[in-house]
Design a protein that fits this description.
By secondary structure, the protein is an alpha+beta fold. It is built from 12 helices and 32 strands.
Length: 592
């Protein structure tokens, strides 16, 4: 108890000294005035306001995303006893996001974090992590959390002090490692064949006059992410609630389910930044239709957060459940939105959406088919809005060498046509035109399938199902045709869309006799991997000990596809199945 009491006193002193730093504030010239009466009333007890400049301690010297502001509000309630109703918390969150938010140009590069993209499929993502932040912030936080903040140099230092006060191990393990000796390089990598390890401490001798990792990080943040930027100044001058009421065309895609088309009808809510929604969607391949109603809020004039619901629960976990969430980026002209609608225990399921405002003119969303083979005859369904109900074949253009021979059916939202693809049509992506409206690069024409790829090329899932949710993993087999150069695996290859593959799991040889493939889970005929349950399995004992072991492990995910001609094509992905995340740091309230 004596040691515990001493440790508690030390921690109190650290936090207290951090609090003294908080009180110093930044200069009024580089701060942002806080004028909302509710924010001042609820936050002003600790974050005192200067009556002349209207600057509030800490609050005036930070800009960030709605998610981070919401985390800050939660921390004030949890650690400092702030009493807030849900309505008050929502109003403060909206005010801070608008008054101390990010400009669209600042938020767009890291919007994937708001979209909860676990696997972002953006090559070169590692390049998004600046080297000065690899050794510090990125050890614990996704880099989007860090790149989504703007502060003064003084406030960045206070943030570091707060980390050391609340998490004392961060100082010696990350900020000032190696026995408190400054380091001259943030990380050292050791290459051994195909295995690359990152060392916590530098392998080279420490040089005189070098800096601690935290000092390098703070210098970088103060220079590259200052509180006031030209982008924010320009956006704040013109920021206003967007005008979104009307009908929007939904052109979307869900991994494992394919293309999704439909409409979102948006109506004004009780405030200029609040909206209600009605969604009608159809999965082009399966024909499944879904109706949902919801609500949304737009932060900082462009950042949509929404939630929609239906009364019919889905038995398939990869379909939208009773309730799902939305994050979308609104264009400056208020005529386009792009983002992700997501759900699942880890938000691993989602629909990538592109919304365009619908007026009186025809709009083409896309087709049910991804590709047409040359030569061939087939039926193609074209989806859109305000399409001619009784079109002529001449109203529809699918590109050179693809002839519309018959209109099977027509309606304002869907047209079915029979097409004939002539021999020797060059491989390429074709536009789809109907009555003057165009969907660009929607339909591929190819001569043969050259190879397939499994996407993502590496993934992970989490055990669960008893006390925590499972994290599923969805895979797809994408077919490709050689491009104009006639060579596979080059930049001009044409993606032909997902194909129906045969799926299986294969042992990844990492630990002798571990038999991961027997325990980690199963994969179905749509490429959906379902992990096993969490907790020790009495039937499984690994070589290292004689005790029951969890069902974790790593396996190959194999796909095999037989094209119209030629041998079967094969591809694989790497899958790690690991233990659950028992503690979630999430912000589901920002869209309520």
């Amino acid at each position: 108890m004596q040691g515990l009491k001493f440790t508690t006193q030390i921690l109190f002193l650290v936090i207290s000294s951090t609090g003294l730093l908080f009180a110093q504030g930044g200069s009024a010239a580089e701060g942002i005035p806080i004028t909302d009466p509710l924010t001042i009333a609820k936050c002003g007890g600790c974050h005192q306001q200067d009556p002349n400049t209207k600057m509030m301690r800490r609050l005036s010297y930070e800009r960030t995303t709605p998610e981070v502001w919401e985390q800050n509000i939660k921390r004030m309630v949890r650690l400092n006893g702030v009493s807030l109703s849900a309505s008050d918390a929502g109003q403060i969150l909206r005010y801070l996001s608008d008054n101390n938010g990010l400009a669209p140009e600042e938020a767009r590069p890291i919007f994937w974090e708001a979209e909860h993209r676990l696997f972002r499929d953006q090559e070169g993502e590692d390049d998004q992590v600046p080297a000065p932040l690899e050794r510090t912030c990125n050890y614990c936080h996704e880099i989007g959390r860090v790149l989504g903040q703007r502060r003064t140099r003084d406030d960045y230092q206070k943030l570091a002090n707060l980390h050391m006060g609340l998490f004392p191990g961060s100082e010696t393990a990350v900020f000032r490692p190696h026995g408190g000796t400054p380091v001259d390089q943030p990380v050292t990598e050791v290459q051994n064949g195909t295995f690359r390890a990152t060392l916590l401490y530098p392998a080279a001798p420490v040089k005189q006059g070098s800096k601690y990792p935290i000092d390098i990080a703070l210098d970088y943040l103060a220079k590259n992410q200052p509180l006031i930027t030209p982008e924010w100044t320009a956006w704040k001058a013109v920021m206003r609630p967007p005008k979104l009421a009307g009908v929007w065309a939904v052109n979307a895609y869900e991994k494992g389910k394919g293309r999704v088309y439909g409409t979102m009808t948006i109506e004004p809510g009780s405030a200029p930044d609040l909206f209600t929604t009605k969604i009608e969607m159809r999965y082009a391949t399966s024909g499944l239709t879904i109706s949902r109603t919801g609500k949304g809020i737009v932060y900082t004039g462009y950042s949509w957060r929404g939630r929609s619901a239906t009364t019919a629960p889905a038995s398939d976990p990869s379909l939208p459940p009773v309730e799902s969430r939305e994050a979308m980026f609104v264009s400056r002209d208020n005529n386009e939105m792009m983002g992700r609608w997501f759900w699942g225990g880890y938000q691993e399921f989602g629909i990538d959406v592109h919304l365009v405002r619908v007026g009186a003119q025809p709009v083409v969303f896309g087709t049910d088919r991804y590709a047409l083979k040359t030569p061939s005859s087939d039926e193609v369904h074209i989806f859109g809005a305000n399409l001619p109900a009784s079109p002529n074949p001449s109203d529809i253009d699918l590109g050179p060498g693809v002839e519309v021979t018959k209109v099977v059916s027509g309606s304002p939202t869907e047209i079915a046509v029979e097409v004939s693809v002539k021999p020797d049509v060059p491989v390429g992506m074709h536009d789809v035109r109907v009555a003057g409206a165009t969907a660009e690069k929607t339909l591929a024409v190819y001569d043969k399938v050259s190879y397939i790829k499994v996407t993502p090329d590496a993934s992970f899932a989490r055990l669960g199902g008893t006390i925590v949710a499972k994290q599923y993993a969805q895979f797809e087999a994408i077919a490709f045709a050689d491009g104009p150069d006639g060579k596979p695996g080059t930049a001009d290859d044409i993606a032909l869309g997902p194909v129906s593959a045969n799926w299986g799991l294969e042992e990844f040889m990492s630990t002798p006799d571990d038999d991961d493939v027997k325990y980690v889970g199963t994969i179905n005929d749509t490429g959906l991997f379902t992990p096993s349950g969490e907790g020790p399995n009495p039937k499984r004992k690994k070589q290292a000990n004689n005790y029951p072991t969890d069902n974790w492990g790593d396996v190959w995910v194999d796909a095999s596809y037989k094209p119209e001609s030629g041998p079967a094509l094969k591809a694989r992905s790497y899958l790690v199945v690991t233990v659950p995340t028992y503690i979630h740091y999430d912000q589901p309230e920002v869209d309520q």
